[in-house]
Amino acid sequence: MDCNLRPYQEEVVQAALRGENSIIWLPTGGGKTRTAVYITKKHLETTANAKVAVLVNKVHLVDQHFAKEFRPYLGSTYKIAAISGDSNEKDLFGCLVKASDLVICTAQILENALINMEEEKHVELTDFTLLVIDECHHTQKESVYNKIMGRYVEKKVRKEGNLPQILGLTASPGTGGNKQLDKAVEHVLQICANLDSVIVSTKEFTPVLQKVVPRPKKQYDIVERRTLDPFGDHLKAMMLMIHEYMPPTVSRSLREMGTQEYEADVVELEKEGVKKENRLIAQCALHLRQYNDALLINDTVRMVDAFRGLDEFYNSRKTKLLDGTDIFLQGLFDENRVELKQLASNDRYENPKLAQLQCTLQEEFNDENSRAILFSKTRRGTHCLFDWVNSNPELQRVNIRAGILTGAGTGANHMTQNEQKETIKHFRTGILNLLISTSVAEEGLDIPECNLVVRYGLLTNEIAQQQASGRARAMNSVYSVVAEEGGREMRRELTNDQQKITTKKTNQQQQKITHSEFRRKISKLQKIAVMTRIQAERKKDERKQRYSPSQVQFQCRECFLLVCSGEDLRKIENAHHVNINPEFERHYIAGGQVVLEKSFEDWEPGRVISCKNCGKEWGMEIKFKKVVTLPCLKIKSFSMKTPGGKSTPRQWKDVEFQDCAAL
């Protein structure tokens, strides 16, 4: 099959066809992936011993790029392998690379293969002649893309040869949150340095591009602030009672209830409580976060959704009350439960944003061929909106058939990768006509042209905003922002509009920089990045050597029960930390079977494990080599006691003792 390009695509591929490292900047729907297919085809035809890797940042994009783009154009001539985290071939990645002309994989799989020294799994960057990096604006800070490119840049700075050509793809490099033009230019230059590439966008064929990618009509569906919110007020009164239960110095430091800032404050407060072994503060902070979540849900969806979340939380805890703090917190909710439930079911005080959202959806779905995506911030929010749509008689009357699309994972409200694929397939074929989605649908997904995209209760950056609006590709489509008058979402959306203008200006500014000046700036940024990375690695190694495993004691994060020592731990597949001390078994109870979609080389999941004393979930059992069952621990469920004090690491890489031996 011929891979024909439009004039603006022809223009942006020229640098890559000359063998130069480049970032293709085209809007969502402009055909970035098709340009990558074209460049890959030419590269394979003209380069001796060519080997190409296409890297994506989301699992579902592996299959999509393979089935919709690369296989149709290259599959009859070249050997292509598509590998994601749920495919067994990842364990033989090194062998697969040797046997293939082109591999399409998640960036994490390549990163794992660069680290793993087993022959059948290991690869080097120099094994490839071309690296294609999808959604390459993520190549910054601690992202997997930047870890891979960090190695590349280090080799380049050290003048090591045979490095692959780089091709980045993006709908927008963004501004890095900078409002000042010079700072935004610095951000874009840093992305260029990280990818060792120059940005190319169309200059000659902008009108053609605009015709191919129609811009949706943007409308602000503004609602007035709730005049009365007795349910929210009652929650705040209960939170104040918890504040009064804590020492006065603690509650004075907390910011406004019902905000992300308040959430950040109570997360830090819980950590402080754990470090000081002050269970009163740690538990109050934990419960205040639940109430704050309820306020945020009340502000976004229905009062009953906010009430249900709290009710489920307290129902799960009532059999494990350990002390006076637990009794006070449980009692506070139980005493107010009936009144909260009554307030939540009073339609007079319902969220006005939902009435506006209903109008927006009804208007568009009067046309039976309508397709829409409704973007919400959280997984839980998507489920609440799904329930609302399905229980709303007016929306059912216009034949809305809704489905949920959220990120893959194993927790509550996560989807399996197969469920994601099924939902996208149903939306493509028209079985579903409304997708209620988190940001997972913003980037890269090949979904049908929509005539309505709604951003509902979202605070994101200008890149996400552009990608979301780019999903509205049908002619005369509408991009709607449902927000409260003068609210945070509205302010952020207007800021994003301004940032988009700044992004355009940064591109113009960058075009003015001479080639030699650009190279000088990039080279300087790369040398700084290499030095910074070496220093960070040194500090990380020092932190890892701070204590020996025998000096570290693990406590349950919720009840502070001392359960094991660092000496009891071993690692499986260089990632999963298991406890090999048989004595540990007396501290936990096993619950339901864990079901994972993926299969693993040396182990399979067992049951969920929880603290016998307080019920805190600790992780799961692992059946290792079908011989022995071992408890595998989630670091977030524990605090660590060391000679230097207590800590609450979020990830195993943050612990301050020497690495566990492999099992």
From TrEMBL:
Q: Classify the source by domain of life.
A: Eukaryota
Phosphoprotein is among the record's keywords: no
A Pfam family assignment: Helicase_C
Domain (Helicase ATP-binding) spans: 13-191
Which PROSITE patterns has this protein been placed in? HELICASE_ATP_BIND_1 (PS51192), HELICASE_CTER (PS51194), RLR_CTR (PS51789)
- What is the catalytic activity of this protein? ATP + H2O = ADP + phosphate + H(+)
Identify the residues that the record assigns to the RLR CTR domain, covering every copy.
542-663
From its record, what is one biological process in GO terms? cytoplasmic pattern recognition receptor signaling pathway
Which positions fall inside the Helicase C-terminal domain?
Answer: 353-514
Would you name any one GO CC term?
Answer: cytoplasm
GO MF, any single term: zinc ion binding
Name the keywords, alphabetized.
Answer: ATP-binding, Helicase, Hydrolase, Immunity, Innate immunity, Nucleotide-binding
Q: Which family is it part of? A: Belongs to the helicase family. RLR subfamily.
Q: What is this protein called?
A: Probable ATP-dependent RNA helicase DHX58 isoform X2
Organism, as annotated: Cyprinus carpio (Common carp)
